Amino acid sequence: MSYKNLIAQALISIFVFVVGHYIKQIIDNKKASSRKRKAILSSLIAETECLLHLIQTRLEAAKKVKNDVKAFVTIPITGDYFRIFDSVAADLSVLNSNKLAIKAIQTYMETKGLFDDVKWFSTNAFELKRGLVLVNGNVTPLINGYIESQIIYYDEIVNDRAPKACQRLEELIQDLKAENK
Question: What dihedral angle (degrees, nearest 10) is formed by the CA atoms of 65, 68, 72, 76?
Answer without folding.
Answer: 10
